[in-house]
Amino acid sequence: MRILLVEDDAELNRQIKESLEDAGYVVDSALDGEEGHFLGDTEPYDCVVLDIGLPLMDGISVLQRWREDERTMPVLILTARDRWNDKVAGIDAGADDYVTKPFHIEEVLARVRALIRRASGHATSELACGPLIVDTKTSRALVDGKALKLTSHEFRLLSYLIHHKAEVVSRTELTEHLYDQDFDRDSNTVEVFVGRLRRKIGHDLIETVRGLGYRLRDPGEEQAGTPAAS
What we know:
Residues 124-218 form the OmpR/PhoB-type domain. By secondary structure, this protein is of the alpha/beta class.
């Protein structure tokens, strides 16, 4: 999962970015509203953490412009404790949730997890597909109750697939959501990670849809539509 963080306080930006990365997310960060708006307008993100008080372009304006351009990614705004009007303005501009400064980083992480879950139609932190369970709260994956040993990239790919269970996800989309903007992206590496995951979770859970990409599916559920090959 890929997150955009827009916060002008360099130290707070660093702290939040490190905490999000430790939780398994790929994070792009910006220190002002103009760069933040540009990134959010040109790159695909699963969630945005957006400060309201930004230089060059304030957070409300950034958010309004995204929504006017039909950018629908969930947005968590950061507001000052005594600025209740910022919370109202942020929600009215299209924010999905807010956190008041100062905050515990665990609250930010919990709200980010919740926003990503809701955006993909899930209600709990434990996402299931047949014998597979991915716990987004603890960043653990289990098959038949047994914990899997996954690399960070393998977990990110599996997490993205299970958030979009039963949907066909292209190699390009996976690549865009697995790596930050500075990474030298190569969609061929996705095939390598898919191969590794199949050996760990079972070959019948990740389906290859010819010419389109991959789909995580419960083999016990009947699939209709596009023909596939595993």
